[in-house]
Write a structure and sequence with these properties.
Blueprint lengths: L6 H14 L5 E4 L2 E2 L11 E5 L2 E6 L1 H5 L7 E4 L4 E4 L1 E6 L1 H8 L11 H14 L3 E2 L2 E7 L7 H8 L9 E5 L4 E4 L1 H6 L4 H6 L2 H4 L2 E3 L5 E6 H8 L7 H17 L2 E6 L23 H9 L6 E7 L10 H8 L7 E9 L33 H10 L3 E6 L2 H17 L7 E4 L8 H7 L2 E4 L8 H5 L7 H4 L5 H6 L3 E4 L10 H10 L1 E2 L2 E2 L8 H7 L2 H6 L17 E4 L8 H5 L3 E6 L2 E5 L7 E2 L2
Parallel strand pairs: 1-5, 2-6, 7-14, 9-10, 14-15, 15-16, 16-17, 17-18, 18-19, 19-20
Antiparallel strand pairs: 1-3, 3-4, 5-26, 6-23, 8-9, 10-11, 11-13, 12-13, 21-22, 23-24, 24-25
Helix pairs in contact: 3-10, 10-11, 13-14
Length: 588
Amino acid sequence: MQRFIPSLLAAAMAFSSMEAMAAAELLLFNGKVYTAEPGQPLAQAVAVENGKILKVGSNAEIKALANADTQLIDLAGKVLMPGMIDTHSHPVMGAMASLRANLYDEVLPLAELEQWIIEQDKAGTARMGDLIVISGASSAYWEQSAGLGTVFNQGRWADQPLVLDGIDGHTGWANNAMLARVKIDAALVKSLPEKERNYIGHAADFTPNGYLAENGWDRVRSQYPAPSDADMLGAAREAVKINNQVGVTAWMDAAANAGDGDSLFELRPTEQDVGVLPLYRKLAENGELSAHVAALLITHPQSKPDDLDVLVKVMQQFQGVPNLTFPGIKIFADGVMEFPGQTAAVIDPFKNSLKRGELLIDPKSFGQLAVAAEQHGWIMHVHAVGDRAVREALNGFEYARSLKPEVVPHSISHLQLVNPKEFPRFKQLGVIASMQLLWATAESYTEELVKPYISASAYQFQYPARSLHEAGATIAGASDWPVSSPNPWNAIAQASTRKGPLGVLNAKESIDRQTMFQAYTLNAAKALRLDSQIGSLAPGKQADLIVLDRDVFTVSDEQLFDTQVLQTFFAGKAVYSAEPGKAVAQAQ
């Protein structure tokens, strides 16, 4: 086949290209433009046409593309970047929790907690039907289960079902009135297999103490009254709004087919399990979905290859919805690290129980499931907290690569513990490390609920961002909202300082902000399988842009943490302004 263009045709195409670039609908100039294109220096200006990047360059180059109809925005030296991308979020759930009584991980003395709950109930934010449900409860409460029972199992609470919904999504606490509602009692606990029994906190006589984890917790939260369709749509709308406010214009919804109350760890999806997907479709129909949603469909950890066929049918129901894509599936490999849950799968046993947590995937068949996903053209996104879960997930991907060497951008999220033997395997296998580095902090979760129970060698590799990066892994940013804030600037700064109320968590694993900027832009776009469309400012890519209130390249880490987004553009259209009309100067 001829691989050159005759000179006359080339000349005609060149002229046509110049003519096409003669004008732009939007110019942003006089700024510090970070493109996220590898090796490209800061530019000054960007031209946008038809919702896409037309050109990036100097002020003079970009201004030459203006005509009388072009909108001109003088950035006045401000930083312009691609929209931020979150590779692991549950935004509708996060927004719904933000609209309810929410502790946001704060630990109050029990007397203050009771008074706070009473006030929230009076304010009308605490109830779901006749239940009192408090979102965002810290795992630090669970070792106070007896004290919680003393307060919330008597008096006004004796007949009032009350639940503390753990912020981690894996644990919670319920008072006796709620336990009775869902029929959790000593007889049930005694009848369960040991694995399931361990998910329900109990005394020696099997009497439950209110603490619940994993499918034990599912027994409670599955009984929440279903929110109304209007409330769910309002939460979806709020999710888009909150993300746009912090500069996020794309995310991976890490369980898009799971409904409110579904067991995320035991879900065997059907064609009817569509979760929040109808909400995204409705927003798109209304022109309100100002974000790219890469929807992952969750499936059972030990699914067989044929089980994936039902997910095809779910995806087909939502084909063609603008800004909604289906890159693949989500799998839980384990649970959580913190005491008393300790359901994360670890290599060295927990010191207190001498158990190795719960590995949810079957190492003998997980590789076959990865192969089946690839045959569908999908990536797998794996929840793996413990080092044993990380290892077995990588083993499965290694099996897939042994059959087909072509790299597929699977990803592993959370990565609280990673054994050093696994560091180089991420690059070798092309697996993306989706990390919530806002969690890389010395606080009760890492120091009091983890450190005493794991080996010293494992502890020093909590959230090992630098080790993974230096081994060549692709780091992608993530929040796991509502487990933590969706604000990427908090996580970017925390990745560098790793400071917390109890000191610094493994300072040698800190990672610089430049790497984190890439983690939340082009690297994250790769995890969503959208890097040909978004993630950097390059001609032809969608014009998802954010303008910042400070120079994020030079401010201190403390100032970086508090970065504010002044304006967010999606496909070249302003979808958020901190102060409408004042965020950036409209040039005359």
